[in-house]
Specification:
Elements: H1 3-13, H2 16-28, H3 33-53, H4 59-80, E1 90-95, H5 103-114, E2 118-121, H6 128-138, E3 142-146, H7 154-165, E4 173-177, H8 183-188, E5 193-194, H9 198-210
The structure holds CO-5-methoxybenzimidazolylcobamide (B1M).
CO-5-methoxybenzimidazolylcobamide binds near residues 49, 52, 107, 146 and 148.
């Protein structure tokens, strides 16, 4: 069995220890970090996602799989963020209020650091006030909002409105993303950019920072 398949299967079983060890082993074998991420970790999480949808697994199993995913991501992180240059700009990043999903957000953050940006990660379940405070305090070029639920994506609009009310909207680019978010939705709520994945989010953030 290929090591990437072994990573995917260990993740589905929720074995953080095995995922961590196999991720390291794959790196030692010279497998590209992007392949380990996409064909190992994300492939496993994709299968868990489908089973979750079909009620074949439940929240506890998904949480354990997410913990295993983090174990793998922690090993990959130094490779994904290798940069060594002075940051080209700051990003305030967070998962919006009511939403506890952080794997995608963390990946977006890692890729942005890898693209040369400094990332201030506010975490999950972040209320609009905290985004506004962070913009005042850190003066970032970009605010990046993640939402994974159809019930929380509207919170991205709430944050944009709060930035407007605080008179801060014009000084930042707002980027939105997350599984239920679309280009059309992003335009509708007045975001500056929608990107479908972490790599393109980092690419667009870099363009904004250098503009
Ligand atoms: Co949740 N969950 N979950 N969950 N969960 C989903 C999102 C769901 C699609 C599962 C399903 O039914 N198929 C579904 C949402 C349905 C909907 O609203 N459309 C769902 C649900 C319903 C729920 C609960 C309501 C379940 C319940 O309690 N009954 C609950 C809600 C809790 C809450 O947030 N208030 C819940 C809870 C959880 C756990 C806590 C158990 C766990 C999260 C653990 C954690 O994050 N630490 C969890 C997980 C793991 C998932 C799935 C299985 C995997 C999500 C994930 O991490 N994917 C997910 C099903 C799925 O996605 N297939 C599901 C991997 C990650 C890399 O992808 O986050 O999409 P993703 O990020 C991508 C892109 O979206 C993008 O880049 C990333 C990769 O390149 N991206 C951005 C993300 N943010 C971006 C920002 C950007 C740009 C791109 O710019 C700023």
């Amino acid at each position: 069995m290929g090591i990437l398949l072994e990573i995917s299967e260990a993740l589905q079983k929720g074995s953080a220890k095995v995922v961590g060890a196999k991720t390291q082993e794959a790196l030692n074998q010279g497998i590209a970090p992007a392949a380990i991420l996409n064909d190992g970790l994300l492939a496993g999480m994709g299968i868990i996602g489908s089973k979750f949808k079909n009620n074949e697994v439940y929240v506890p199993e998904v949480l354990i799989a997410a913990r295993a995913m983090h174990a793998g991501l922690n090993i990959l992180k130094p490779k994904l963020v290798e940069t060594g240059v002075k940051p080209i700009g700051k990003v305030v990043l967070g998962t919006v209020k009511g939403d506890l999903h952080d794997i995608g957000k963390n990946l977006v953050g890692m890729m942005m650091v890898g693209a040369g940006l400094e990332v201030i990660d506010l975490g999950i379940d972040v209320p609009k006030e905290k985004f506004v405070e962070a913009v005042k305090e850190h003066q970032p070029k970009i605010v990046a909002l993640s939402a994974l639920l159809t019930t929380t994506m509207s919170e991205q609009r709430v944050v944009i409105e709060a930035l407007k009310e605080a008179g801060l909207r014009d000084q930042v680019k707002v980027m939105v993303g997350g599984a239920p978010v679309t280009e059309t939705f992003a335009r509708e709520i007045g975001a500056d950019a929608y990107t479908p994945d972490a790599a393109s989010a980092a690419e667009v953030a870099k363009q904004f920072a250098l503009a």
